[in-house]
Design a protein that fits this description.
It is a single chain. The protein is mainly alpha-helical and about 2050 residues long. The chain contains 100 helices and two strands. A two-stranded antiparallel ribbon has the order 1-2. It is globular, with a radius of gyration of 43 Å.
Length: about 2050
């Protein structure tokens, strides 16, 4: 004890590290308590345990470890610092927990791993788990796979990276361990759920049988997209923030909807690339040139086979492509042309964007070849060119396509046009800019006038596609001269087109498009640079509401992988402008005067051209005032400016008047809808005055205002051309100055650089120095945006001028372009930034270079030149390189296609002559500049070899290489370099020069990046080896680079990567990491990066326009609440600054450039729940109105903005009904494909449809109803249940439409109401329809009454709410309605009710006027139906049923429920004649007639408790005479007054009325609390407990589901029940009276209550759970121990058998059993062991060991073993004497098990090793018997191996295994072949089946476990076993038990599914049967009846029912009764046969 006291004094953390296991156990327990108490996640207390958590999970003592795991889990969940422990703890869990035999330990280990993932440490956890897959211990591997599967299932594929798992899957499938293969199969099924067919390709090579099994499993999976069920902490917080953001009207990007989407996985990404170049036949290039076509065919076929690989490794394919191109272009055999085209298709698909570099070579050849007419050739060529198109961009191949358009061959023209049409389909508005569209449209317009009809058709299709993609606004300017017929044809084609990306707007769409690249590539089959480009160029989606936002959509990513990207970018913005451009025709002067006279004072117009300047000045002042007061919509801008330009116009001599005039122009441009037509009128004059000293500033102001109205690009172009067409140098210089300033204000986006540069060159050549200076200043401003590449345009200028330009550029270096202040969108910057995937700041400028004409130099790279470069003689090599230099210098800007040059130059990089290496590096530097961003495609084949040169020993070579790498990186950005393994491979080389240069370069480049590819992590291991390099410089560079690596990868990943280092190295590296962590810089912020990008300056304008009013900046946010008065259609636009948005002139608004791909309903996680909460909390308006007001519409629009595609929303809220029809059509199309989306937005969809009910247009209404029918059918198929919120905001408005005059609409509405009952309880529909009967519309009243009748007919009286009486009274009122149809409907409805309910109807409807009553009676007489005729076929309402069934009932058996319902009503209808028979509801009858009449049709019925008033069962119960005679009362002593009072009170406990029940419980509580009175309860305990758990069931099924009930009432009732029970179970004498059956049902009720998630949501919920916990403990401790143990065993058996039961239920039952096991040492002597062992025997018979092992959880088998083990330990060998109640002991598994256990325990007593006892080992004492066992087994296997004795050997092995079930035969099987192993397993299975079959038939007295669930007729053997074997007379309980089983099998007693089939009780009457509570009910019936009679004087109202807790089955029945039962049983048996 001394030791104990020592460690007990230690602190908790010291105890946790103590060597004594007890101390550690105590430490962990205390730590657990401390962790649970700490509320602050950042508390310093957590840090104390940081180093100990690993020890918690890896403790060597299994018991202690379990407690440690619990504490660790709480720590990880709550501690802020827990993340730091991820690596070591998860590694510990994998190695030390997953190999534990205890399931609890594994479960906790898994939970810890999942918790780490939840706290954002997913990658670390995954890495450790993947390491665990390589473990040699299969247990660990299995647990790791299981954990990964669980993580994937819960968190989804966005958090759990699938690629590494998929990589190891094939290996797992090959494992020798079946458990691993099975687990691999499960995880493969789980992965398939997330990525579908993308998984098929990687698993193609696994065993075909396994693959087939997998495919079968995959087919069973539900089709809907899975959703994560568990979220990371950050995501959980995001949920909360999301709503705030939306309500604050955050920008369109906010909310991150796409975060909730399951990321699409591209199958291509998961495939391993195949290298095919080396596999080409050696003679391929000879054969392909052969003269014989057969040889050429052979060569092509070889290639075709190779390119069928779905993913090809990148390589040098130029020769192969060239050869194939030659065949396509020149081969005379068309079959070979088609074959070569197929090969090209395969290459393009397999290489994807890597094929882009060859596209330019092949496209012209294929297009030319379209002259072939053979369909198979044409098809092959089409497939080839389509596949190739996906690897490049339209921009890249546009010149080739346009060149072919002029071909004379009509087929070529036709096919080219069709190709253009198909290509356009892949484009979006942003990737098809005007600059590209213009030449295509021009060429296609020629074709629409072609003589060949097929050419015309193709051209129409192409133009139609373009129209669909970019919208009418963008295409119309090119179609100005097309006549109407052709224009209509183009539009017609446009409507038929389906785009690849659809159309969608809104930033969310853009953002998703930017992110989901891989997803898209699946659709396209091959993703080229084009995909990148789609994402790269930000859309102008969210810009719509900003004033002149159109201009500000720069292509911020400098990523377009082809020339001319910026051309697209430039004009993209013009496209943006055209969307909202105001087009107006030129008006004549007369019209202008007329218009001006309307808005201007008459004097003003007269004095315009007055000779007196003062009058002109006064006139201008009036003019200005008028303009200032004018409304935007009324301002005739063109008329006003024409008035100003009228004589004297711009020749005005007086400067004051002129200043005023210019100011007015600026005002008009700002305040009116100023068009380019108006601008043309004034620009000339403004440019003329811009150089004026006095008026210049006003002129510049006016120009700026015009630029804001008409966009800077257009204005600048006009102004520049005007200025340079004049001779006035002052005007020229001032124009240049104005433009320089304007660029700063507006940003650079969209400007036509080419045009400016020619003007700037003119200016630079001007003689006037001021013009030159202004030009240089303008160049300086342009340099800010364009970057150094701008200088290339001016390299030909004179040196002096060039030095001035350089000086100006020098000044600008390092400056960032200012954020645009005019004409920008507040949203765009954010949108684009978000869309970026973090490219580099320095990579944008080069776009501008693409405006230059590029030269194709591939034809100059001849074979001769290439062979020169590769010559042996260095001089000739030098000549070759000189030639290349001159070719590049001459061309200046070149196309990316440079033929064989890359390979040739690559060879020269490792030239032995260093001078040539340097020359090659210079050429490569030149090449980068000349090729621009397109050099990107050569990074892998040329860029990486340059890095290799960094390892050169010569300093100057390394310097040249570094300069070249920098020149390349400037053009390409860093992403291309960091992707893949190339860089890490370079760093791996142990070359000190290479390492230090490369690390230095990375240290310089990484800090500037906002994000990096994930492949950067590959460099880390090599970085660590550099940290320990022998070379000091390398170490220093590595240390310098460390913080920058950490900046991108994070400390955690870096620290994790040290796991593979040696321990000494690891410590050193970790120390350096800690140091680096302190110096780690922050990542560059997004906005700064955006503005520093040369072209991106226009992007991130976060501030509103300078003078824009608040309203305007508000309206610019797409998410913010738009002004209700604005057009309902799309985004609100405001044109010029300072003025609020106006109505849009055109219907189409901005939709033309929307992108309609992607889902129309976006699943926002918990979006619906949040909306419901908001409505409850009154944060938003409740959807309740007589007619919809604007604020409701706006609110709905706002709620939809986050979860409905923007373009669809625009259609839905358009003012034109046709758009509503369009929206409905789209919704119908997407209904099936987007089930989840529809359900997540269901409340919004229904609300929107209610708005449509208020529309006057019938077509919309019809379409809406059509959609609703489909919708409710879908919801019913999906088993969805409408929420109260959805129902209340929709049903009332639907019911309005039931009164429509059109018959067809009424029918549709009725059909919808009918379908709604499948997704919403009819009883809840009833009040809504009842409300509809109060309408003023008589048709509506009539229809509603009819509908009510239908509901009663289908669902019985229970649908009548609030009570049948009230409902019928209301219906009956309408019998006196003035409208005939309403009267008829009311009468028909009541007749229907009469048919269901009989004469009681008259009682319920109350007093009717004489006239009404006579009408009703007359109608009833006429009605052919009589009450209680055939039962009406009824459909049970599903929502109520599934919610409210007994928890164990199988919820989905519809047929049964229908049957039940009909019979229930039949029973009820009988009660119409009170004197005839008062029936009990069906479930509580013992209806033997029912069984007898039921000839062989077996039904499993599910009573839905909610469906009837439970109070019915408390009516006096009359048991029909022929069935069972009244039981003679044998409880005579209880008929005293007290006893009957208690009976009565107990009967009230189960009352349906909560107050009644509470009062009864209070009275009983008083009795129980007073010791002297509590004895009165004796003898009533079972009765009381039955009433109590009936009440529990009533609460669970009825009250909790009733939304009208105040939940506080329920809590009050629960607390009364639980309080009472606790009082009861504190008195041991009373508690012991509870019988087994009752305890079983009581425990069932309590555990069900503990699992009721609905209570958790209540405020007092946790308190209820705590009380129940306490109560359960009391029940376990105080009840009769035999009874409770027996009850728990039975309950466990039932819960495991119940398929619908929750695993949690069984788990809690087992926990109770464990507690009982702990109590056994104290209670063993009071237990009737014979009974307990009988129960265990029955359990083991129902669940043989094999079946138990198949359970998902290993807890049941462990629980059983623990119980038996404890009993053995406590009783010793005597335990075997307690098997007296088991019939056939030899067949009992139990006896064998107990014998084994005894043997083990005896063995153990021999060895006293502490270790063994600590582990609780129960193995065979191997030392003595191992050798013997091995010899014996070897003998058996020898027999199996021989042909003769194989059967005998198998039989012996089976006997041996049965005898020693845990004997290990694995070693004998391991060394044998797979075939032998499976042979042995199969043989053992066959023997088992034979023996089991033989052994079980005779003893089968009940239902065999397999038959248990299905309703199969009983085997005949059961009949014989009913009579006792000894010929004694059998007691009645046996027959009742037998009958009960029969009834149960026929589904007649489903409420009591808990009652196990008591297998052996029937044949052994002496055994006390477990009488279930239903039997108890019977035994109490007579008492209740008597207690009722005694209480008649209370004169209780018939509505206030009393609780009948009982009915009888006592064994005191007479012999006659038994005979009757016997006969009936025999009859049932014979009829069943």
């Amino acid at each position: 004890m001394g030791d104990d006291s020592e460690w007990m004094k230690l602190s908790v953390d010291q105890k946790c590290e103590h060597k004594l296991w007890k101390a550690r156990l105590s430490g962990y327990e205390e730590a657990l308590k401390i962790f649970q108490k700490i509320k602050d996640e950042k508390s310093p207390e957590w840090s104390k345990y940081l180093g100990l958590i690993k020890k918690f999970v890896t403790d060597s003592n299994a018991v202690v470890q379990l407690k440690g795991l619990e504490a660790a889990l709480v720590y990880v969940e709550n501690a802020h610092v827990a993340g730091k422990t991820t690596g070591e703890v998860v590694s510990g869990v994998v190695s030390k927990v997953f190999n534990q035999p205890k399931a609890k330990a594994k479960e906790l280990g898994t939970e810890i791993c999942l918790m780490y993932i939840e706290i954002e440490k997913g990658e670390a956890v995954q890495e450790e788990l993947l390491k665990g897959l390589d473990s040699k211990n299969p247990k660990i591997t299995v647990a790791c796979i299981e954990t990964l599967r669980k993580a994937l299932s819960e968190f989804g594929s966005k958090i759990i990276l699938l690629k590494p798992i998929i990589k190891v899957l094939p290996k797992l499938f090959e494992s020798r361990e079946k458990a691993i293969r099975d687990e691999a199969k499960l995880i493969a099924v789980e992965i398939y759920r997330w990525i579908r067919d993308a998984l098929k390709a990687p698993l193609q090579n696994i065993n075909s049988v396994q693959l087939k099994e997998l495919e079968e499993e995959w087919l069973k999976l539900p089709t809907g997209a899975p959703k994560p069920t568990r979220f990371l902490r950050s995501q959980q917080e995001l949920e909360a923030k999301l709503e705030q953001q939306q309500s604050a009207g955050g920008d369109a990007e906010g909310g991150g909807d796409d975060g909730d989407e399951v990321p699409q996985i591209d199958a291509y990404e998961l495939l391993e690339a195949v290298e095919i170049l080396s596999k080409l036949p050696k003679d391929f290039y000879d054969k392909i040139e052969a003269k014989k076509w057969q040889e050429r065919k052979e060569a092509l076929e070889a290639v075709e086979v190779l390119v069928k690989n779905p993913k090809l490794e990148a390589g040098e394919y130029s020769d192969l492509v060239k050869a194939l191109k030659k065949v396509v272009g020149k081969d005379t055999n068309v079959m070979l042309v088609a074959l070569a085209a197929k090969c090209l298709t395969g290459l393009a698909v397999g290489l994807r964007k890597k094929f882009g570099q060859y596209a330019g070579h092949v496209v012209p050849t294929i297009l030319e070849k379209f002259k072939e007419k053979k369909p198979q050739v044409v098809q092959a060529l089409q497939e080839a060119i389509d596949a190739i198109f996906l690897t490049t961009t339209l921009q890249n191949i546009s010149e080739d396509i346009l060149a072919v358009m002029d071909n004379k061959n009509p087929t070529i023209k036709q096919q080219t046009s069709l190709f253009i049409a198909r290509s356009f389909r892949h484009c979006t508005a942003s990737t098809l800019p005007k600059s590209l569209l213009k030449p295509f449209c021009a060429a296609l317009l020629k074709h629409i006038n072609d003589s060949a009809p097929e050419v015309r058709d193709a051209a129409f299709e192409a133009l139609g596609t373009a129209l669909k993609v970019v919208g009418e606004k963008a295409v119309n300017p090119f179609l100005a001269d097309v006549d109407k017929l052709k224009l209509d044809r183009i539009k017609e084609c446009s409507e038929k087109v389906e785009l690849v990306y659809g159309k969608k707007t809104g930033a969310t769409a853009d953002k998703r498009e930017a992110k989901a690249l891989p997803g898209k590539t699946v659709a396209s089959g091959a993703a080229g640079d084009k995909d990148v480009k789609d994402a790269a160029v930000p859309k102008s989606g969210p810009v719509k509401k900003a004033p002149t936002a159109k201009a500000s959509g720069p292509p911020k990513k400098g990523k377009p992988a082809a020339s001319g990207a910026a051309g697209g970018a430039g004009s993209k913005n013009k496209k943006g402008s055209d969307v909202k451009e105001i087009v107006e025709p030129e008006l004549s002067v007369e019209i202008c005067e007329e218009k001006a006279s309307v808005v201007l004072p008459p004097t003003c117009l007269q004095l315009l051209d007055s000779g007196n300047w003062k009058e002109r000045l006064a006139c201008m002042e009036e003019f200005q005032k008028a303009v200032e007061l004018m409304d935007r919509t009324e301002m005739p801008c063109q008329a006003l400016v024409r008035m100003l330009a009228k004589k004297p116009g711009w020749k005005e001599t007086n400067f004051q008047v002129m200043q005023m005039k210019l100011h007015i122009v600026a005002l008009i441009a700002q305040k009116g809808n100023f068009s380019k037509t108006s601008a043309q009128v004034v620009l000339d004059g403004l440019v003329d005055k811009i150089g004026d000293v006095k008026c210049g500033n006003n002129a510049k102001e006016a120009l700026t205002a015009i630029a804001e109205a008409c966009l800077l690009p257009w204005t600048a172009e006009q102004v520049m051309s005007m200025a340079f067409s004049q001779k006035n140098p002052k005007n020229q210089s001032e124009t240049l100055n104005w433009l320089a300033n304007a660029i700063k204000e507006f940003g650079f986006s969209g400007l036509n650089v080419k045009a400016f540069i020619s003007n700037v060159k003119t200016a630079l050549a001007a003689t006037n120095p001021a013009v030159r200076t202004s030009a240089i200043t303008l160049l300086g401003v342009m340099y800010l945006y364009v970057g150094p590449s701008l200088r290339m345009f001016f390299e030909d200028e004179k040196t002096a001028l060039l030095s001035q330009i350089d000086a100006e550029f020098e000044k600008m270096q390092g400056q960032t372009p200012p954020a645009p202040t005019r004409g920008t969108s507040k949203n765009l910057g954010a949108g684009a930034d978000e869309g970026e995937d973090g490219d580099e700041p320095d990579e944008g400028g080069s776009d501008v270079v693409d405006l230059l004409p590029r030269v194709e130099i591939s034809d100059k790279i001849t074979l001769e030149l290439v062979s020169k470069i590769g010559d042996k003689n260095w001089k000739i090599r030098k000549e070759g390189l000189d030639e290349v230099t001159s070719i590049i210098n001459e061309a200046k800007f070149i196309h990316p296609n440079i033929g064989e040059l890359p390979a040739a130059l690559k060879g020269r990089l490792n030239d032995s002559n260093k001078i040539l290496v340097q020359q090659t590096l210079n050429i490569l530097q030149q090449l980068a500049v000349a090729m621009g961003p397109n050099i990107k495609q050569h990074v892998k084949n040329l860029g990486i070899p340059i890095i290799t040169v960094l390892g050169d020993s010569k300093n100057n070579v390394r310097a040249a290489a570094l300069a070249t790498v920098n020149a390349w990186a400037e053009q390409t950005g860093m992403k291309e370099w960091l992707e893949g393994e190339d860089l890490s491979e370079e760093l791996k080389k142990e070359n000190p020069f290479l390492r230090q240069e490369l690390l230095g370069w990375l240290a310089e480049k990484l800090p500037a990046l906002r994000s990096t590819p994930t492949d950067l992590i590959l460099c880390v291991p090599h970085l660590y080896s550099c940290l320990e390099d022998r070379n000091g410089d390398v170490r220093k560079k590595a240390q310098d680079a460390l913080p920058f690596f950490m900046m991108h990868l994070g400390y955690e990943k870096m620290a994790k990567a040290t796991g593979k280092l040696k321990p000494t190295s690891k410590d050193q590296v970790l120390a350096m990491l800690e140091k680096a962590k302190a110096n780690m810089p922050a990542k560059p912020a997004a906005p700064a990066k955006a503005s520093s990008k040369p072209v991106g300056g226009a992007g991130p304008a976060k501030c509103p326009p300078v003078s824009a009013p608040v309203e305007d900046s508000m309206s610019s946010s797409v998410e913010s609440k738009p002004d209700p008065k604005k057009v309902r259609g799309g985004g609100v636009s405001s044109k010029a600054k300072g003025v609020q948005g106006k109505k849009m002139p055109s219907k189409s608004t901005l939709k033309e450039d929307d992108d309609k791909s992607g889902p129309i309903f976006i699943v926002v996680l918990n979006g619906k729940e949040q909306r419901m909460k908001d409505e409850k909390a009154l944060k938003v308006l409740k959807w309740n109105f007589t007619t919809p007001r604007d604020e409701y519409i706006e609110q709905l629009k706002m709620q939809m903005s986050s979860c409905v595609a923007r373009w669809l929303q625009d259609e839905m809220f358009h003012s034109d009904f046709q758009h509503h029809n369009k929206a409905l059509a789209v919704m119908v199309d997407h209904l099936e494909s987007e089930k989840e989306g529809v359900i997540s937005c269901l409340d919004l969809i229904l609300k929107w449809l209610t708005l449509r009910f208020f529309d006057t247009n019938t077509s919309v209404l019809m379409k809406a109803l059509e959609y609703l029918k489909l919708l409710f059918t879908l919801l019913s198929d999906e088993e969805y249940h409408l929420t109260e919120n959805e129902a209340s905001s929709f049903i009332p408005y639907l019911i309005l439409k039931v009164g429509e005059p059109k018959d067809v609409i009424r029918k549709d509405v009725r059909a919808i109401l009918n379908r709604m009952c499948l997704v919403y309880p009819a009883s809840k529909m009833f009040p809504f329809i009842m409300e509809g009967t109060k309408s003023k519309n008589s048709k509506q009243r009539a229809e509603c009454l009819e509908e009510l009748g239908c509901l009663v007919e289908s669902y019985g009286m229970n649908v009548c709410q609030p009570t049948p009486g009230k409902a019928l009274k209301e219906m009956a009122l309408h019998i006196g309605d003035r409208d005939n149809t309403v009267r008829n409907a009311a009468l028909n409805t009541i007749v229907t009710v009469y048919n269901v309910h009989g004469d009681q109807v008259f009682k319920l409807i109350g007093n009717l006027s004489e006239k009404d009553m006579s009408m009703l009676e007359e109608r009833i007489k006429r009605s052919a139906k009589r009450p209680a005729a055939a039962p009406i076929k009824q459909v049970e309402e599903r929502p109520q049923r599934t919610q409210n069934l007994n928890s164990n009932a199988n919820m989905l058996r519809k047929g049964a429920a229908e049957d039940m319902s009909s019979r229930l009503n039949q029973a009820r209808s009988l009660s119409g004649h009170p004197e005839s028979a008062h029936t009990v509801p069906r479930e509580f009858q013992l209806d033997l007639d029912e069984i007898e009449n039921d000839n062989g049709t077996v039904r499993c019925e599910m009573p839905a408790l909610v469906q009837h008033k439970l109070d019915d069962i408390f009516e006096p119960v009359l048991i029909p005479e022929p069935k069972i005679r009244a039981v003679s009362p044998h409880f005579d002593d209880m008929h005293s007054n007290t006893a009957s009072t208690i009976n009565f009170i107990i009967s009230q406990v189960a009352s349906g009325d909560i107050n009644t029940s509470v009062q009864a419980l209070t009275q009983i509580d008083e009795v129980l609390r007073q010791e002297d009175k509590s004895e009165a309860m004796s003898g009533h305990i079972d009765q009381f407990l039955i009433a109590t758990f009936m009440q529990l069931r009533l609460i669970y099924n009825t009250h909790m589901a009733d939304e009208k009930l105040d939940k506080d009432e329920i809590i009050k009732l629960y607390s009364c029940i639980i309080g009472n029970m606790i009082s009861l179970f504190q008195m041991e004498n009373l508690a012991r009276e509870a019988s087994t059956g009752v305890l079983k049902d009581l425990m069932h009720g309590l555990i069900t209550l503990m699992l009721d998630s609905r209570i958790e949501d209540l405020e007092e919920g946790q308190q209820v759970f705590r009380s129940v916990n306490l109560l359960v403990v009391k029940v376990l401790e105080k009840s009769d121990q035999t009874n409770i143990l027996s009850a728990l065993l039975v309950l466990l058996q039932d819960s495991l058998l119940a398929t619908a039961g929750s695993p949690k239920f069984s788990e809690l039952v087992m926990k109770c059993l464990w507690r009982m096991v702990r109590l056994l040492p104290d209670t063993i002597n009071s237990i009737n062991l014979d009974r307990i062992l009988l129960d265990i025997h029955i359990f083991m018979k129902v669940f043989p060991k094999e079946k138990l092992k198949q359970c998902k959880s290993e807890f049941p088998i462990r629980t059983l073993k623990t119980l038996l083990h404890t009993l053995c330990k406590l009783k010793g060998p005597k335990i075997l004497d307690h098997l007296t109640m088991i019939d056939n002991k030899n067949e009992s598994e139990l006896e064998a098990h107990l014998c084994r256990m005894m043997k083990h325990s005896l063995d153990q007593m021999g060895s006293k090793s502490e270790k063994e006892t600590e582990k609780g080992a129960s193995r065979i004492d191997e030392k003595s018997s191992k050798a013997k066992v091995n010899d014996f087994l070897a003998e058996i296997f020898k027999k199996i191996g021989s042909k003769e004795n194989t059967k005998e050997g198998l039989a012996e092995l089976y006997e041996y295994k049965k005898k020693y079930s845990d004997a290990d035969i694995e070693p004998f099987l391991k060394n044998s072949s797979q075939f032998f192993q499976s042979y042995v397993e199969r043989g053992l299975r066959v023997i088992e089946m034979e023996r089991e079959g033989k052994g079980r038939i005779p003893s089968s007295t009940g239902i065999s476990p397999q038959m248990e669930v299905s309703c199969v007729p009983t085997p005949t053997s059961t009949v014989s076993s009913v009579g006792n074997t000894n010929g004694e007379e059998v007691g009645p309980s046996v027959y009742l038990e037998r009958l009960k089983i029969l009834r149960q099998r026929c589904g007649l007693e489903n409420t009591k599914q808990d009652d196990r089939p008591s297998l052996t009780l029937l044949s052994k009457p002496s055994v006390p049967a477990v009488v279930s509570s239903t039997d108890m009910l019977h035994s109490k019936l007579s008492q209740i009846r008597e207690s009722r009679e005694q209480h008649q004087h209370l004169d209780l109202d018939s509505n206030q029912m009393h609780s009948a807790t009982s009915s009888s089955s006592s064994s005191s029945s007479t012999a006659a009764n038994i005979d009757d039962l016997k006969k009936r049983l025999e009859r049932i048996k014979s009829s069943r046969k």
